[in-house]
Amino acid sequence: MKTPSVASKTKLQQQQLPQQHHDRKRVSEDKQLSLPLIIEPNQIPTLRDYQIQVISELYKRINKNHRRILIVAPTGAGKTVIAGDFIYREYSSGKTILFIVHRDVLIKQTLKKFNDFGIECSVIAGGYKENRNAPVQIASAQTLSRRKIDWFTPNIKFIDEAHLNAWNKICQTQLENYEETTTTFIGLTATPWRLSKREAMSDLFDTLVAAPTPGELILKGYLAPPVYYSIDGIDLKGVRTVAGDFNNSDLGVRCNTPEVVNTIVSEWKRLASNRLTIAFAVNIAHAKAIATAFNQAGVKAASVDGTMPTLAREIIYSQLQSGLIKVVASCEALGEGFDIPAISCVLLCRPSKSKAKAWQQIGRGLRISPGKYDCLILDQAGLVTRFGFVEDLKSFTLGKSDKTPLGQAPTKICPKCSAINRNFDALCGCCGYEYPVTPKLLPTKEFKLLRCTADKVKQYQHYHELLKEAYHRGFKPVWADNQYYSKYKQWPPYKWMRDAVFGSIPTVADKIAYRQYLVRLMVADRQAIGWVNHHMRMIFGEEYSME
Known about the structure:
CATH architecture of the largest domain: 3-Layer(aba) Sandwich
Number of domains: 3
Largest sheet: 7 strands, parallel
Strand content: 5-15%
């Protein structure tokens, strides 16, 4: 196998990878499917620019002797691909790795991703034959809690879905006592938040490596822009809270009624008809009721749950992907690991106080796919009002255990089309409804970087094209600002200049060329050197250097 092409484009502090032989097949049995699972090496995935950067930052942390590292990458950003590339490098240099998944259902998906890199894997989980000689082991947390694996001492332990898995008794104990071993622990998550106020990722991890936020990935075209609508129906007054979240039994009574369920169907037919859709339900009965209501309305639908055989669920997923059915409703079975990029509508029907659960669900619809230009989020559960828009997140942190949770996000619902907008929006982003002008609803002076409409993504991309044109024609960067203003009647945010001309991984030659371009303009316009440095930071980031 050839070394990944991305390796030559980065400064990863790792030795050259050896050639691998792909002329042998590796076969393991998936007894859950009663079918042979053929593992044949495929072409190594091409990494995106930010994925390369995450791996580079990971090596920097390791080289500084950090041994409890959390990687955060939004749903759809390819965190398993990031892990696969890193594991391939370490596996090729003779390291042993244990990769811990949250549930058995994620094993096959992870195995396939690693197979794409040509990594020799074995599985430690019920229904799989062990190969104790394999240098990379994929383990189910469920299995580790009841099976000893003292025969395998890995150099590196990956903890997938770390916002959940790291608090598994086995993983938590190992992380808290990491100094007793030489193992490096690396957590992976899209949502680094815990439901309990007494717990935070900083309790178990020392440092963070973060991919771009959902908003940044949307603007760059790596995630589909969401469009939010509110659906009436659920009254949460009197619903009890148990272990930090709404009581499931109470929710079942409030959510699984004909009136509430039929509202979902009617609003879907009005707003999202013919879109491939997934619905998140309170429990199995609720999921079945949603599917039944859609079928009775003439829309082909099905429900899935954790009690179904794996093969039965995969058949339904295949039917959804092919369009034979339009809606799949589920309780928990779609939360982690579900991967059908063509999904362009998500029904939020299960109220929750868990931000991680809410954003995981929304993220299932944001993967990009040919012909897909946005994703409708139909929110009957009030999750968007409670936690805000995913694209407004400014940064990821490890958090603090005693950190006071944020209050409700400032939003308002359009009385004309039910779309969810921000409090400062003067117009509805979906139907154009003009809100009555009152002092509280006037737009803020600061223009927001991230929006929930596809039009904002187009404006961002157009501004980048204008900055590139200014550079190639020798015009000042302000020319791009003026062109943008003449078209959109508003100035572009300064933050949009970042990575506009050369992308997110510029070469030293790119930086030299752009600085020379700025210096020529500085001399011609009699500017100070600070003007050059300011624009270098705007294009290459505050931390820019010529290295």
